[in-house]
Amino acid sequence: MSSERPIRIGLLSPQSNRNLGDTATFAAAVAAYRRRLPGIELVVVVPEPAETARLFGTAGFPLYGDGAYVPIPSSDAAVDRGASDAAPGRLASMRRVYAFLRDLDAIVFTGGGQLDDFWGGAWTLPFWVLTWVAAARIRGVKVLFHAVGYDRLTSRASRVLALSALRLAHYRSFRDAESVRMTQAIGLSGACDVIPDLAFALDWNAAEDNAESRQGEPYVIVNPVSERMWTHSHDRSYADYLDAFVALSRRLLERGLAVKLLSTQDRMDADALAYVADALGKEARPNWERVHCTRLDQFMALAWRAKLVVSSRLHGLILALVAGTPAVSVAPMRKMTRVMIDAGLADFNLDMATLRSDSLAATVDRALAEEARLRRHVAQVAGEYRRHLNENFDRLVSTGLLGERARRRFHPGGRLETRSV
User: Containing H/E element for 246?
Assistant: First the structure.
């Protein structure tokens, strides 16, 4: 029997399990690597690793190098376990990152949110992305950017840091062609793949995958979002945006459809959901509810049974499509519009900045009228995306992009088409 140590791969993201889109992206990646590399040891590298590591049964390490390492019981990795809860200085944190990388075969920047300076500016996430990449290259560890998106890089310093990190990577893929063009505009050259958002590779299974399980009171999921998601300053148009969701909810209830107010980011969007709930409550309208959705399986089950999902959250849309349910987008960000265009659903995408109650109502009416056709279309698109991602995961492992040891241990029979969370 070989005594060679297990393959160890770090999955890095600024994710939080308070955002079910982040959870879905990691769930898809973790399952994909485990199927192809039996015995792999994965480490989630996120700001607060304890909960993510527990959720996925992995080890965990703090993205900013300033917290405790979270081990898995079977691991014999010789990592720095000495950190306390006290926050070290930046230089000490950088040294911890460098020491930790010694035991990895690859570090994979997994999913969206990597090219962004919205939270803290250039010297927060952009700085630490480059720190991880540079340290990995010095250690001889493979570096991959996997299905990332160009979000916000508002300063020259942010763009220089992000561009330097991307240039040092062994592999780069983006979740849309527009992100590639935007990174090229700031100076990136070299090969880049365009692949779907990793959440489309999610394994899931409706408990009762048949027509009868969709019977019962028909409902629409409605998901307005917090103003903080796209701006740090108050925008006067935000009240109009929320009022459009109130008007839509009234219209759905008058049509005999129930309304479920929920979000893939329950905590951040709580005020927006409460605004709509308060308006409906004051009018004593029946057949609506505010659902506190905090688990991925809970959201998937609700989305699968819904007639339609109306959302201003990127993964509110994506997870609806994964579940096979039509979606209407009210987009505060470019990335949501891009998903809808790429999925052939541009007619069901509305720009938040120019949103009117009548246009939202008309778009939702049209989606409900075309529900059967849209379900067939969504199922086809989601299936194609899933196959594309399966092929991409195969390529990462089988061609040595995750390291020579991973290439040798690639398990080609690992591509399962079962769908279970």
Answer: helix 237-254
Distance, in Å, from the CA atom of 319 to the CA atom of 344, rounded to the nearest integer, reads: 16
Q: What is the DSSP letter of 291?
A: -
Nearest to 247 by CA among 371, 332, 365, 368: 365
Q: Report the DSSP beta bridge partners of residue 239.
A: none
Question: What gap in Å lies between CA 115 and CA 196, rounded to an integer?
Answer: 17
* Element holding 309 (H helix, E strand): strand 308-311
**What's the whole-model pTM score?**
0.91
Domain boundaries, the chain: 8-195, 211-378
Residue positions counted in the chain:
421
The CATH classification number of 8-195 equals: 3.40.50.2000
Among residues 414, 17, 29, 12, the alpha carbon closest in space to that of 197 is found at 29
What are 398's two structure tokens?
């089988």
Q: What is the pLDDT of residues 82-122, one digit of tens each?
A: 444 455 789 999 999 999 999 999 999 999 889 999 888 99
| β-pair partners for 144 | 108, 171
Q: What is the mean pLDDT of the chain?
A: 91
Q: Considering all CA atoms of the chain, what is the largest pairwise distance in Å, rounded to the nearest integer?
A: 70
| Superfamily classification of domain 211-378 | Glycogen Phosphorylase B; (3.40.50.2000)
SS3 content of the chain, % helix, strand, coil (to 5): 50, 15, 40
- From the CB of residue 322, how many other CB atoms can be counted at a distance below 10 Å? 26
